[in-house]
Structure formats: structure tokens, C-alpha cells
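Quick question, first post here. What does this chain look like in 3D?
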Amino acid sequence: MSLATLPLSYCTNVHPAQSVAEVIDGLVRYSGPVRQQSGFPVAAGLWLAAPVIAELQSGTGPIDRLADSLQASNLACYTLNGFPYGDFHSERVKENVYHPDWTTTERLQYTRDCAAVLAGLLPEGVEGSISTLPLGFKSAATSPDFVETCTANLLSLARELDDLHDATGKVIRLAIEPEPLCVLETTPETTAFFRTLFDRADSDGILEPAQRHLGVCYDVCHQSVEFEGVAQSIRDLRAAEVRISKVHITCAIRLESPETNRDGRSALADFAEPRYLHQVFGRSADGRIVHRTDLDRALCESPSEKFLFADEWRIHFHVPVNAERIGPLLTTRDDLKRALKAVAELDYAPHLEVETYTWHVLPGEQQPSLVDGLTAELQATRDLLAGIAG
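> Answer (accepted):
Ran it through. C-alpha cells below.
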């Protein structure tokens, strides 16, 4: 059994921040109080947008202020969310979150700078991780050399992370995060890509650094939305020697029996919102799977036959991980339990991070305060992990 003994992390991409001052404000207003209210060690999985990273790289003052703020709030930091590059809280994020993709120098430079910042924040003797997008959004990856260019950039980063290790003694692992309708969305697609990636690394003479520094961020709800068996998925990644460097502890929405479950479809319609992309997958009794790029009211109110007669829908909408159900809707919490049990069977311990970034767009007027909601998620997750560890 192997579960991380580091403080449980929660991802700060739930807090808007386009400057170092705004990041620190989020730590003071939310992360510190969550740590205090939880009553056990908590880590801040920092989301540092490109303007924040640029500011932190401008001199020692900004990063010293950030480090001091983390210490004052009694928060560790060992992982960054390097997936959203720009403003993750603009009015419309949707597919823009996948730009710039891994074919670009902007994505490579941003991630390189994230690693340099993280190396300065890591506690002594602790490895770091940075989650990132799964190369790009599938429908936008039209260039014939898309994957080849991504591969070259990732191997360039692996070399630089290896150099950073030599210079600082800090091991930082990039964690590529499969997601529905992206270039890497399913476990078979992911393992196939890593075979190609490592073959190229071997031919370039950098297989060891590539295997050390390049792996995946396993976002549990993403694979649940794909109707994958999450425990088998994790075992398949292990068998393929693809390291899970980070686990996003997440839950998605489930709608059973959409044809007859009018209350469920009505409730689901309220989750259609203009900021984030909420991919929808439906599975029929014979195992066929259909999908829509985004949730909208029309799908809930007048679904096509292939969706109406599906046995179940799953929706990429991160909901609180302590919720078994939300009104007439179910969640994928059972899959979360299965996934964490499978993670515990690994012979290494991935970083563990709760990542519910949608608190500000959840429907309903009776939501708890953000501090209370995040605290409840962390407490429920800690209890779940303790039960698994025995």
C-alpha cells in the first residue's frame, strides 16, 4: 500500500488571480482559513497564470513574498497546476483553456518557468509536480505534425528538468492530464502516446530523464466521464510504465435513465453555464458511447434519441468530492473510491490534490461559503484516504 504522506493539497485554480498580490490575497482569504478550519496539514496546489509566473520571474521580491505568505498561512506547496495559461475566471473560458497547446514555444516556456518557480518553493527533500494539458483539444489539433511537435517540446522540457535537478537537487515531474475530447483522452491513447514518446527519448539518448520527469496527472472524473473502469485504467498505466505523478481527486455528474428521469434532466439543465466546458458522454445498454462537446439546456430538455435512450449520462462538471448526489443527480464518487484504492496499490506515492474549481458556477443559492465547502471536501477526502490506508 502506498499513499502520499504529504499534506493533502487543494488546487487554488478556484481563486481568480492574475497577479502575485491576488494569489497572496487568495491564500490569506481562503487557503489559510481552510488550513486552520481543517485542523490538519494542508498544501496549496498553486495555479499561477502566465502573468503571475512572469511577475515571479522578474526578481526575488515577488517569490519571496509568495513564500512568506505560504509560511505565514502554515501551507506547504509541492505542486502547481500549469494547465490554465491565461485567465481561468474570464466570462468565457471553454475551449480557450487548451491554448496555447504543446506545439507552441509559449507553452514550453511557461512550463519551464513554472518549474523554476516551484523549485524555489519546494520543501527540502520533497519532489514537485506540475500538471498540464493533454497536448491540446482534439478538434483543434489539425496539423499533420501536431503530435510530433508536442513530443519534441516535451523532450526538450525533460532535458531542462534534468538540468534543473542537477543544479538544484530538486526533482520536478510534468504530469500530463488526459481529458475528454482532447488529444489524449482515453487510457489507451495515453499509453500509446507514451510508448512513442519514450521510443523517441530512447533514440535521442534521454530515456532515463524522460521517464523520470514525464508522466500523467490522473484526474479521476475525466476517466469516469469516459466510462472507463478507473481501477483497471490505473493498472494499465502502471503496466505500461507510465508514472502517475499526480492524482486530481474529483467527481463528475451522473444522470441515470435520462428517458424517464425528467427531474434529473431538469436539474442538469441548471448546470449549463457560460464559463467552462462541460463535455457530456452517454452510454447505451449495448456499450455504445455518444458524446457532446458541451452541456446545454437544449440537450437536457429535448435530447436526441441517442442521448434520450442511453442508460446513463456523465458530465464533466467538477462537483464537490464529498457529495454522493446533488438533488436528483448522482456523482462519480464511487469511482473516486475505486481509483484511490488502485492508487494505493502502486509501488510509489503520487501527489494527491482535490480539484473542484467550479464552486463559483454551481447552481443554487444555498451553497456553503467557499472556506466551508473546501474544508468539507478536504475532511471527507482525508477520511476516505485513512479508510483505504487501513
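The chain has a mean pLDDT of 97.
The CA atoms of residues 47 and 81 lie 5 Å apart.
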